[in-house]
Amino acid sequence: MSKKKKLLRFRENESFPNVIQPPLSDFFDKGVGKVRKHRLAGNWRKDIFKNDNPIVLELGCGKGEYSVGLGKMHPDVNYIGVDIKGARIWFGAKEALDYNLKNVAFLRIRIDFIDAFFGENEIDQVWITFPDPKEKEEWEEKRLTSKTFVGRYKKFLKEEGVIHLKTDSAFLHKNTLEVIKVNGYNLLMADADIYKSDLDNFSPELKQVLSLKTYYEEMFSKKGHLITYLKFRP
Ligand SMILES: C[S@@+](CC[C@H](N)C(=O)[O-])C[C@H]1O[C@@H](n2cnc3c(N)ncnc32)[C@H](O)[C@@H]1O
Q: How many domains does the chain have?
C-alpha cells in the first residue's frame, strides 16, 4: 500500500464513527509509567452500542473479516475488532459503515493494553484470528495466547466466556494446547485440520462461523497450510 493511500485511510479513520483511536495519554501515565482504566472500560454497551447485547472481541483483527462477518450473521451481538494497524482496520470499518452495521466497532490499540479498555465481566467471547505465532522462545510472552495475554483477557471475560483461536500455525496450535494444559484452562474443542471433512465435524452454527475466511487465511491456505481451530475457557 502506498504511503499516500495509508495516510488517506488514517485520515478517514478519524472521521469514522465506528473507529476508536485513543491517545496513549488517555490510559497511560507516562510520568509513573502506569496503565490506568480508559473511560470506556465498563461502558461499551451504554456509550458505544446503546444496547445490552453480548460483546465479542476479535484480537489482531487486521481487516476485520470476523468482526464484520459475525456482525452481519448476528445483529443481536456486538463485535469489536482490535488491531494496532489503522490502514487494515479501515477495511472492516468501511464495510461496517457501508452495511450500516451498528453492532460493529474497531479499537486501534496495542493488545498489550487491552485490559485497560474493558470492565470486569464485560466481554462474552474472544476470537484470535491468525495471530503472528512468534515462534522464537524469547517471544513466548508476546504470543496472543500466552499465559500473560490470557491473564489480561481473564480480567474482562465472563466466567463462562470462551476464547477461540483460528490459525494456520501448527506451532501456535500445539503451543496453545500446552498453555491450556499447563495452566489448567478448560479445553472445549481442538481440530488440527478443520477443512479435512469440509467443516462437517462442527455444529451448523460453528460451521457457518468457521467458513468465514480472513485475508491471512486465504493467503496461507493458498500456500497449502492446514487451518486449525481451538476453543477454550480460561
Ligand atoms: C497475521 S495478521 C492477521 C490479521 C487478520 N486477523 C487476518 O487473519 O487476516 C496479525 C495482526 O495482528 C496485529 N497485531 C499483532 N500483535 C498485536 C498487538 N500486540 N497489538 C495490536 N495488534 C497486534 C497486527 O497488526 C496484524 O494486523
A: 1
Q: What is the CATH number of the domain that holds 107?
A: 3.40.50.150
- The verdict on whether 124 is a catalytic residue reads no
How many DSSP H helices and E strands does the chain contain?
Answer: 7, 10
Annotated active-site residue in 26, 47, 132, 198: 132
Residue 62 Cα to ligand 1 middle (Å) = 5
Per-residue pLDDT of the chain (234 residues; tens, 9 = 90+): 789 999 999 999 999 999 999 999 999 998 888 999 999 999 999 999 999 999 999 999 999 999 999 999 999 999 999 999 999 999 999 999 999 999 999 999 999 999 999 999 999 999 999 999 999 999 999 999 999 999 999 999 999 999 999 999 999 999 999 999 999 999 999 999 999 988 998 999 999 999 999 999 999 999 999 999 999 999
In ligand 1, the atom with minimum distance to the C-alpha of 166 is 8
CA distance 19 to 216: 22
Pocket of ligand 1 (CB under 6 A): 60-62, 83-85, 88, 110-112, 129-132, 214-217
Q: How far is the CA of 63 from the centre of ligand 1 (A)?
A: 9
Which structural domain range is residue 87 located in?
Answer: 3-233
Cell of 222: 493458498
> pTM of this prediction?
0.97
- Whether the CA torsion 165, 169, 173, 178 is positive or negative: it is negative
